């Protein structure tokens, strides 16, 4: 069972480099953070999904530098926007064992 699972909400204006850093640091336990077993990104819409995929790609490059492989699973999720439920995409990211 996961100790803690940070969930980052991604928008079409998200800075992909900062988001990639958040993913990498959360999984490695850097910057005085507890190491997370996995990280989740939640997005709704093509622009935010594009930003999420770019951040995952950058983070995967960071992982290769420390001889790790990043695994990403995708699923649909319901997101509540002020009472209106929309379908979004959830990316679950973790290191390969």
Structural class computed from helices and strand pairing: alpha+beta
Q: How confident is the prediction overall: mean pLDDT?
A: 92
Radius of gyration: 13 Å
Main beta-sheet annotation: 4 strands, mixed
Beta-strand residue percentage: 25-35%
Principal-axes geometry comes out as globular
Q: SSE string, helix = H, strand = E?
A: EHEHEE
First CA to last CA: what distance?
Answer: 14 Å
Helix and strand topology:
Elements: E1 7-10, H1 16-28, E2 39-43, H2 46-65, E3 70-81, E4 84-95
Helix pairs in contact: 1-2
Report on this model:
The protein has 97 residues and is of the alpha+beta class. It contains 2 helices and 4 strands, in the order E-H-E-H-E-E. It has a 4-stranded mixed beta sheet with strand order 1-2-4-3. A hairpin with a 2-residue loop joins strand 3 and strand 4. Helix 1 crosses helix 2 (46-65). 23% of the residues are buried.
């Amino acid at each position: 069972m996961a100790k803690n699972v940070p969930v980052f909400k991604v928008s079409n204006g998200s800075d992909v480099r900062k988001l990639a850093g958040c993913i990498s640091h959360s999984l490695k336990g850097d910057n005085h953070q507890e190491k997370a077993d996995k990280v989740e990104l939640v997005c709704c819409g093509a622009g935010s999904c594009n930003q999420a995929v770019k951040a995952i790609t950058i983070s995967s490059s960071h992982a290769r530098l420390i001889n790790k492989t990043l695994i990403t699973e995708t699923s649909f999720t319901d997101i509540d926007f002020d009472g209106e439920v929309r379908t979004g995409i959830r990316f679950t990211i973790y290191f390969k064992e």
